[in-house]
Design goal:
By secondary structure, this protein is α+β, with helices and mostly antiparallel strands. Helix 7 crosses helix 8. The protein contains 22 helices and 15 strands. Helix content is 45%, strand content 7%.
């Protein structure tokens, strides 16, 4: 490798003070071009580089850079924004490094440059020109000992290489030395040991106890309550507009006094709202109902001291819209209040996000990029009878040269939309105009509003927390104790956790593919990976990766649990008991480690050595393909746990399973007393079969004191 992989031919001319930070040919978000900064500005907005509607508009604040090196770093940064690394530079290094970065990655890279500049400044270095090989070697070892992870340290070292590379093609190169770790065989000496790893499986799935009622409430709002909420929000918005535009009128004043007469003469409650954390008169509501101006309401409020009365005797502001929806068979509200209508609309938008994010498997940025019209009704006669969602993906969006595209690209294969997702999209399409982002911050109350932008991840997290609080209040109101949403043990419910949770439930719930298809209205099991290659995949490297990871983790836990039960003296039975116990004793534990998708696939492909739990059939499956009776395809590496067949040679049972068989048999026998004879006979026959299976286990079980072969 040459020390100077870049030539003067790649250099950009030095900019003038008034030149834009992002030149016209580098603008990726024309709608943000007006935010472009000038080179001389103290802060640079990178919004023109960021077309992803859910991404934060990053900025670079030069006050954070030591003054002596500020001009040098500004020049190199401007060159990085508007230039690119030549293909020869990238090829020689043989690493995953793009010639241009995204706007947010650019901001992070410059932040690392500023940190390096502060490190140099503390040592009396005032120019990158004096940044020698020895200094860079010391900085590399400083990063190694900083406590950052191995992957993060590698990224920072790469940022310094990028600083050196772009310095060579600026209009005024500083001549800083080439980082010693730029040689691939030397970088390992600057990396810490593997103390922690990154990976998608480090994201905790949402606990079942939390996810189940959360999804129940989200679907309830979307499918049952949406009509009432949209009507109430529309009426509240109409009243608010009327209050602003109503002229003052004497007739209206008389109407207003009649409305307020019970409160003024008999001490009845005063229509009130919460504003700025205080309870006050519902001035817009009263102005709209009476047909008067806000000024007239304020004047009467002062004369009759209604503000104090409203704080002491707050009253409702019922909207004149019918309540048609029910919860647990009863109307969910006697009326919708003017004050709560905006909050209900906000919760409805949050519920729609939860449904879309969990039941599609899309990444959060892909959900937030959905637009009105993205899920049209199937055309008559179309071969596929289900709804399809067309949206953009961002994680691997690159142009023909491999450079990142901030605006993303449309997925080659659309997502399949099951019934609740279609309902959620239809609700959102009533909130936003045609062609607009479904989660545009301009139309979802409570979000920071920026034209053309979707809600951000921080806003989504806060909205989900508020939604859970509201749903639990409703649970108490309606006496639905089983639908309380408990706090998740792993912390706040965030957008990125829904995708992981879907993979977890598919992998760890036998029959999960079929269960999802039946429960949520698939017209056929489009999740079946034997047919589709993965749920909603653009390629196999999609959510199927997460499903493989979760399946590998689950099978390892199953094997460890079998080994522990056997070691404690529990008996084990079944045709595959001996082989299963042998594998359980040597299985690799994954606790505290990151399991990559490639490893997970190889792990699951070990025919005859992987142990699956099937709580529905009350057994373990030591899956060996040529012995399986579950009718898997020849290429399958996993069992069809929803089609488990009695007598299969892959069966393993423990004492715990035998007890569960008897408990289920007792439950069926009790049910039989409450059904007509034909149904009762079937229930009793099933109970007898389950008891026979338990008895067979008792007669054939082996323990740790007995041979296992």
């Amino acid at each position: 490798m040459t020390a100077h992989a870049l030539s003067a031919a790649d250099a950009l001319p030095a900019p003038a003070a008034a030149d834009p930070v992002v030149l016209a040919h580098r603008v990726q978000a024309p709608q943000h071009a007006h935010l472009n900064s000038s080179y001389a500005d103290g802060s640079w907005s990178l919004a023109p580089l960021i077309a992803n509607p859910s991404s934060t508009r990053s900025s670079i604040h030069w006050r954070n850079c030591p003054a002596p090196m500020r001009d040098q770093l500004k020049m190199i940064t401007w060159t990085m924004i508007n230039g690119e690394l030549p293909a020869t530079y990238l090829r020689e290094r043989g690493i995953r490094m793009r010639s241009r970065q995204s706007g947010s990655a650019t901001a992070d890279t410059v932040l690392q440059w500023m940190r390096m500049a502060r490190w140099l400044d503390q040592r009396g270095i005032t120019s990158l020109t004096d940044c020698t090989l020895e200094l860079l070697d010391a900085y590399g070892h400083y990063l190694k000992e900083s406590g950052a992870s191995r992957d993060r340290t590698r990224d920072v070292l790469r940022d310094v290489c990028r600083l050196w590379a772009f310095d060579q093609i600026t209009g005024r190169p500083t001549g800083m030395a080439r980082p010693p770790w730029d040689e691939p065989d030397l970088v390992a000496g600057y990396l810490p040991k593997d103390r922690s790893e990154r990976g998608e499986n480090t994201t905790e799935p949402i606990a079942t106890a939390t996810m189940a009622p959360l999804l129940t409430w989200a679907v309830r709002l979307v499918e049952d309550l949406a009509g009432d909420i949209l009507a109430a929000a529309g009426e509240a918005a109409r009243l608010t507009r009327a209050a602003v535009t109503n002229p003052a009128s004497g007739e209206g004043r008389a109407v207003l006094e009649r409305l307020l007469e019970p409160a003024l003469t008999a001490g009845a409650p005063v229509p009130a709202v919460r504003n700025g954390g205080k309870t006050t008169v519902a001035r817009a509501y009263l102005a709209a109902l009476a047909g008067v101006s806000l000024y007239q309401v304020d004047r009467i409020a002062r004369v009759y001291k209604l503000t104090r009365a409203a704080a002491e005797r707050p009253g409702p502001c019922p909207l004149d819209v019918p309540v048609t929806a029910t919860i647990a068979g009863r109307p969910w509200r006697p009326y919708v209040d003017f004050a709560e209508a905006p909050a209900l609309l906000r919760h409805l938008g949050t519920a729609a996000f939860i449904v879309c994010a969990y039941l599609t498997g899309a990444r959060p940025e892909e959900v937030l990029a959905m637009r009105s019209g993205c899920c049209p009704d199937p055309a008559d006669g179309r071969e596929e009878p289900w709804h399809l969602i067309r949206t953009r993906q961002f994680k691997t969006a690159v142009d023909e040269d491999g450079n990142y595209l901030s605006a993303g690209v449309e997925r080659d294969v659309p997502w399949v939309a099951i019934a609740p997702v279609v309902a959620a999209i239809r609700v959102l399409e009533q909130i936003v105009p045609e062609g607009e982002l479904l989660f545009a911050s301009d139309y979802h109350r409570g979000a920071v509003r920026h034209r053309g932008r979707a809600m951000g991840s921080d806003g989504i997290r806060e909205r989900i927390a508020d939604f859970i609080t509201w749903a639990n209040q409703e649970t108490a109101r309606h006496g639905l104790t089983r639908e309380v949403i408990p706090a998740d043990p792993a912390g706040p419910v965030t957008a990125v956790r829904f995708r992981r949770s879907l993979a977890w439930h598919i992998a760890r719930r036998p029959g999960g593919l079929v269960a999802l298809a039946i429960q949520y209205g698939h017209l056929r099991t489009v999740l079946d990976t034997d047919v589709a290659g993965g749920y909603g995949t653009r390629s196999r490297r999609s959510i199927h990766d997460l499903i493989d990871i979760e399946t590998a983790l689950s099978t390892a836990e199953t094997a460890a649990d079998l080994h522990e039960r056997y070691s404690r003296g529990e008996g084990v039975s079944g045709p595959a008991a001996g082989q299963a116990l042998h594998q359980a004793g040597i299985v690799r534990r994954f606790e505290g480690t990151t399991v990559k998708a490639d490893f997970a696939r190889k792990y699951l492909a070990r025919d005859g050595t992987v142990l699956y739990d099937n709580p529905h059939a009350l057994l373990l499956c030591r899956y060996k393909r040529d012995l399986a009776l579950c009718e898997r395809l020849a290429s399958s590496t996993t069992p069809a746990l929803d089609r488990c067949v009695t007598g299969c040679a892959n069966t393993v049972r423990t004492d715990h399973h035998a007890q569960q068989l008897r408990d289920r048999a007792d439950s069926l026998a009790r049910q039989a007393f409450h059904h007509p004879q034909p149904i009762a006979d079937r229930l009793l026959a099933t109970a007898k079969r389950l008891r026979n299976l338990a008895d067979t286990h008792d007669h054939t079980r082996i323990t740790c004191q007995e041979p296992t072969t």
